Amino acid sequence: MDINHLKEFILLAKYENYLKASQELFIAQSTLSKHMTALENDIGHRLIDRTNKKIELTESGSLFLHYSKQICQNEEELKKHLSLKDVDDIVTINMGASRLMIEYGITELVSQCVKLYPKVRFKITEGSEIELKQAIDQQKLDISFIRELSPAKSNNSFVYMKEQLCAIVKNTHPLANQDEISLEMLKDEQLYLPPDFTVEHQAFLKCCEKEQFYPIISFTAPRMENLLEMVNINEGIALIMEHQARFYLNESYKLIPLKPEIDSYINCKLHHDCPDSKELENFMSIARQYSKN
């Protein structure tokens, strides 16, 4: 028995007219008539008295109408409860990441997780390391990808990526043919860096202090495109993390390692205050597979 035929029968009984019922159902009168005949054949009883022009239900038809309405109502209630169950099954992962998700393949691994586990939802908080740590302290994040100077060491974290600070110059720059660039070579050079609150900027200053080198930092900006444009226009040198730089570079620029090396780590961390869940474990497993360390 087709439940759609029950709904058509209820509507036909309401209008007592094939034309009106078929118009509301957006089907032909002949199709509606065939469906009613099929319904009668399914239950083995005549439901409609066809001896008169006006649609009238037989005694069996009136009884069937009562139960048809109950069946259709039960179907709607079932769908509603199943829908609510689906909502209850949905798990939201609150994830924090610096504004580098695309460059570091984080959007790709999130997409892969959603494909494998359709009931998982991601709520992303993007920000600087300072902003992410504030969100962690406020227990707003379940998991985070955060740049730090030290590799992750706890059981609930791992190094997603290790990379070095590199010099970016135009191909026409005097240092473009160097295999590596020392701090001394940066003397008198105009340097362009990410903002001073970033891990890489602070790591560079710490290295300079240790080497007693005093850099000329003439421009800072959070967007890599702006740093590279300054290199293009002014012939200065941008200091950018290697993987991030490779994402944006084209044939007009040269990436050169710095000496001494200035390392940082993108650590993936599952925060201790968040509840254990298979969804978080599954995501961590996928993230480890995507790890570029």
Note down, in words, how this protein is organized.
The chain contains ten helices and twelve strands. The chain has helices at 3-15, 18-25, 29-43, 59-89, 106-116, 129-137, 199-210, 224-234, 242-248, 278-290, and strands at residues 48-49, 56-57, 91-97, 120-126, 143-148, 157-170, 181-182, 190-193, 216-220, 237-241, 253-259, 263-270. The strands form two sheets. Strands 3, 4, 5, 6, 7, 8, 9, 10, 11 and 12 form a ten-stranded mixed sheet that branches. Strands 1-2 form a two-stranded antiparallel ribbon. Helix 7 links the parallel strand 8 (190-193) and strand 9 (216-220). Helix 5 (106-116) packs across helix 10 (278-290). The mean pLDDT is 87. GO terms for molecular function: DNA binding; DNA-binding transcription factor activity. Belongs to the LysR transcriptional regulatory family. InterPro entries: LysR_HTH_N, LysR_subst-bd, WH-like_DNA-bd_sf, WH_DNA-bd_sf. Keywords: DNA-binding, Transcription, Transcription regulation.
